[in-house]
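Help! Submission page says 'invalid entity' but I think these are all valid:
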Amino acid sequence: MAGPGSKQIALIKLSIFLLALVPFARMGWLTGTGQLVEPLEYITRGTGDWTLYFLCITLAVTPLRRLSGWSWLVKFRRMLGLFAFFYACLHFMTFFWFDHFFDFGEMWKDVLKRPFITVGFIAFVLLVPLAATSTQGMVRRLGGKRWQWLHRLIYLIAPLGILHFWWMKAGKHDFAKPILFGAVVALLLGMRVYWRMARAQAAARG
Amino acid sequence: MLIQRRPNGTDLPFPSEITPREVYEARRRFIARAAASAVAGSALWEMANREAFAQGDAPRLSAKPNPALSTTEQQTTFKDATHYNNFYEFGTDKSDPARNAQSLHTRPWTVTIDGEIKKPLTLDIDSLLKLAPLEERVYRLRCVEGWSMVIPWVGYSLSNLIRRVEPTGNARFVEFVTLADKSQMPGVRSPVLDWPYVEGLRMDEAMHPLTLLTLGMYGQVLPNQNGAPVRVAVPWKYGFKSAKSIVRIRFVKEQPRTSWNLSAPAEYGFYSNVNPDVDHPRWSQASERRIGEDGFFQRKRKTLMFNGYNEVASLYAGMDLKKFF
């Protein structure tokens, strides 16, 4: 299948870009118009949720591409990944701003003291090099193989993000959403493991 | 009536007693203007607050203010106090209770009072309303999650009820049981807690004058999402200690097995006194955000020991509050 032309790709990209900003715009609108009793909590949760949604969507690109044969899907992967980073940054900012009012020392104490924050913080820090090396230029500079190795960090980041969410919800035994996220990520990573094993077996059989 | 005769022999006032025309006219203008602006001002004030304080047509409760036990801090708006609630029987989201609690039938409603008492009783809401004079008390409410409100409750000290049922020497704790009816409370279908919701107090805590058996707020009967028709308000403890929509009050010998404590003993102690020095495992309790006041541009405010109700400190003399958190 030839897939969409470059004009169509550009159009789809623009649509994804605008759609991906809708949750952000909605939080701004609800806050600005005073419709939320506690906007800070709403924004903290919303940005965390959307980070996980975009991590899942980004991780879904490769399996979808393989299952559908639409290789052009990969053209949207960078933008989706960067939106995961965008919402992760906002999420981190809400923590630094709303919880600690820019007091770095207090924030750091919190990061070290509370495992669920430690894990979330590690996941966020690990996202930074991926965002920083997301450009074509960086791919070239690093070389495809090394770049790919670096970007496999996402296989660690996504489970850490879910662990962060899981532990946050654990206190109230409210596991419905963490289980859902966990299942989606397990499926997306499991498919990769399965394909890799299948390939190794095929290679062994020669 | 004594009619004093004027020394000038007439009933006419002295010329010096007559208010000059321009003075009394100025006074009249002032009074008229003050009255007009008061009317206009209060109308504006009402309009501005109609949304925030809109209290629908719920029956009013007349109550005598109790300034000695009330804070003068700015009160949370009725709208915020009724649209940001933790009441898991109606859903785990804080906007769920306002949406779902309308299915709760608060009349008829009875509260069974039993256990280690000489006079077991079942009271309906009307009897509870008449059991003692209603007072209005403005209390701080500190949620274990790190936010707070200021709410004018209507009720009377729980001790009024406790004295009436005559606890025996075995009554060391009081247990409060919340209604758990799937047909009225959609959240009860979720396994998030072991239903019914149970809370409890030590006898001396329950007898403390601050512990309020609460039947209303903001001058009206309790809205469903705030624990209608009867709840307790224990202002020096985290909010979840104040059981809502109570159907049973039981006097017991052993410490009650309370819902959150059973669910996560490391996070929610039986006492759960507001204490800035004892962190929740997942966040600090040293500060709090006052709903409707503390926003984007200031630091959270400091949380006070016992939520500022230091008069209860003597109840815990000699206790290690880090251990009995």
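Support: the input was valid. A stray whitespace character was the problem, and the output above is from the cleaned input. Helices of chain B lie at 21-53, 78-83, 96-100, 125-130, 159-165, 203-207, 259-263.
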